[in-house]
């Protein structure tokens, strides 16, 4: 789809709004070490620094390749098959161009992508390398993925990690690449998969989960600020915990209960009253868990779990000029709740055969990107893989 005049206007409005964002006094960021395992993360200091990079705005003086692809790809192929490596690399480049043509990114995004043999049936995954706390205009501190934070072009900002998005894909999986012979029923289209995963790296990601205090719990909370992580996927359970509050992701700011249009961020406000709020010390995470389970907030956490395993119960409230107050139904049909799949996608049943197919949590095997676009009513341009609602969600994430 050609970029329209209206899209440009939205983007200008977006730039005006994003300046409201404030740097949080909280100078700890979260670094994700492994895109295949979101629990593998560490807290890192990210002191304020003054931007010394020239602001990179798309302009006519840039080289054609820069203009067409705002992603700086660092590609690692751990495979003794040059042809296969090249196919994977070309896919990342193609996806970079597709995203660039739709999103009008103003700052380049560093993408570190690996293609290598992985064990099991894993397809692969991508996600942010760093989440950065920013204070929104409603006073709440939320975690912004670095690729989104950079688009705000703040002159003073928490220190950025050297790369914005990490990706790791399994070369053992029978992927289908553009230009290959007819797709087989067991094959997954690699281009659709990469495009989908990079959307998570750009911020299509809820912070509500059921594994911050214990694994596979039957209650949900946003990220708990103060928990110290080990390298690996273990939370440091015995060390002292200075609780600094519950941190939603930028995405969570726009989640609503469909039944009554209440923003879920209001539930987080109730969480924040836990033991009179921030900077409470606990001797261990187990002590935190016990006190939390005895608090009135625990009922809300259980209630949120039950809501998030019932179809059609949570939506994303769009906030762009032409989609104000429209709600996009998010994925809550998975029972038990599945972190990474529940909430961080659009509803599979509603959207799999629509123009919004890209952000459902399951990719249909034996279906090429072309087929999916055609099934959604598109005319076979790759940009049409990002449907209007998906695009509006990304635009809304910038409306701070
Ligand atoms: Zn996904």
From TrEMBL:
- The highest taxon in the source lineage is Eukaryota
Q: Name the UniProt key words of this record, in alphabetical order.
A: Membrane, Transmembrane, Transmembrane helix
The residues that cross the membrane are 7-25
- Protein name (Swiss-Prot/TrEMBL): Sequence orphan
Protein's organism: Gigaspora margarita
């Amino acid at each position: 789809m050609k970029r329209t005049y209206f899209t440009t206007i939205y983007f200008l409005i977006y730039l005006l709004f994003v300046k409201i964002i404030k740097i949080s006094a909280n100078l700890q960021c979260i670094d994700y070490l492994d895109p295949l395992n979101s629990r593998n993360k560490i807290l890192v200091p990210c002191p304020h620094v003054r931007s010394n990079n020239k602001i990179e705005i798309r302009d006519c003086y840039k080289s054609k390749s820069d203009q067409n692809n705002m992603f700086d790809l660092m590609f690692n192929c751990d495979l003794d098959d040059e042809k296969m490596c090249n196919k994977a690399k070309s896919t990342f480049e193609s996806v970079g161009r597709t995203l660039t043509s739709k999103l009008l990114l103003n700052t380049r995004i560093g993408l570190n992508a690996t293609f290598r043999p992985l064990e099991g049936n894993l397809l692969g995954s991508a996600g942010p390398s760093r989440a950065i706390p920013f204070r929104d205009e409603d006073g709440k501190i939320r975690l912004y993925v670095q690729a989104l934070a950079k688009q705000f072009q703040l002159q003073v900002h928490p220190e950025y990690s050297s790369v914005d998005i990490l990706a790791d894909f399994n070369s053992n999986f029978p992927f289908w690449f553009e230009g290959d012979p007819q797709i087989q029923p067991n094959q997954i289209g690699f281009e659709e998969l990469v495009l989908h995963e990079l959307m998570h790296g750009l911020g299509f990601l809820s912070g509500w989960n059921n594994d911050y205090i214990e694994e596979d719990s039957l209650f949900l909370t946003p990220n708990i600020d103060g928990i110290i992580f080990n390298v690996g996927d273990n939370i440091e359970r015995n060390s002292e915990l200075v609780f600094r509050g519950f941190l939603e992701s930028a995405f969570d700011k726009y989640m609503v209960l469909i039944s009554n249009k209440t923003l879920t961020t209001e539930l987080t406000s109730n969480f924040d009253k836990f033991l009179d709020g921030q900077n409470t010390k606990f001797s261990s995470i187990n002590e935190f868990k016990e006190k939390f389970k005895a608090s009135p907030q625990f009922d809300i956490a259980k209630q949120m779990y039950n809501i998030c395993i019932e179809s059609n119960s949570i939506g994303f409230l769009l906030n762009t000029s032409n989609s104000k107050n429209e709600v996009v139904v998010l994925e809550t049909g998975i029972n038990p709740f599945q972190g990474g799949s529940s909430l961080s996608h659009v509803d599979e049943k509603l959207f799999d055969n629509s123009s919004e197919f890209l952000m459902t949590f399951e990719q249909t095997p034996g279906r090429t990107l072309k087929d999916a676009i055609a099934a959604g009513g598109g005319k076979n341009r790759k940009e049409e893989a990002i449907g209007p609602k998906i695009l509006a969600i990304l635009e809304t994430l910038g409306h701070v």
